[in-house]
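Sample entry (276 residues):
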Amino acid sequence: MRLHCEIRGSGFPILCLHGHPGSAKTMSVFTESLSDRYQTLAPDLRGYGHSRTRLPFDLEDSLTDLVELLDTQGIERCLVLGWSLGGILAIELALRHPDRVTGLILIATAARPVGAHPPVTWPELINTGLASVLNLLTPGNPWIIRELGERSLYRYLLRQHTPEAYRRLAKEGFWAYLGTSSQANRALNQALTRRYNRLPDLGAIAVPCLVLCGAKDCHITAQASLETAAHLPVADSYCYPNTAHLLPWEIPGQMLQDIDHWLEQHAQALDLKSKA
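Predicted structure, serialized as tokens:
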């Protein structure tokens, strides 16, 4: 399947993979910054956004799609940045196609994902719907955040309920949710029932890795992310206090600064000066 892909900038390629629900646009917090020095490729994964299909598929099919995307763009090797589900696909890409990956940036993800989400209540569901619709009309409105957002399911996705985070929810998150197909939901649920665990295989990933996580993430816990970092042969990790699963929208400045610093430190090992 040929994926819809948003390509920005020029230079060494960085493949940016979104989570579930998600789309290429939800990765703009990264591509807007990185594309001034690198070429960023942010695809809509199979079953998401503009890469829609009516046929059932497995998550493994997304790996075939990504390799085809790289081939189509004439890219032999790239750095892969993955958020949540995108991070799991990044790990799989590095394990199955090590010759194509020079490094990994893994955000709010894990090779053995573990969640700690509390039971969902009806008031939280109602507040989530109201907050989502009203936030579309006035993105980042303090009253909506205080009276609805902080009492909705967003309380588990965010710890810092900033206007910037809610503007991202309105501009990118809401539409990504609507653009996630039933086939994508099915593929993820099937993968979860298999209890995905790649920890024993991480020793084969010899490239530099950066693992970033939110200390209060209950969708994929910080402990699971740090466990992944501990099993990777060459890895740096940061666990940000008072952040959750949407930490790139909570602390974008700090996170992008840390990514830039890591890229500079490992430029030679990541082969960032090559044409890829």
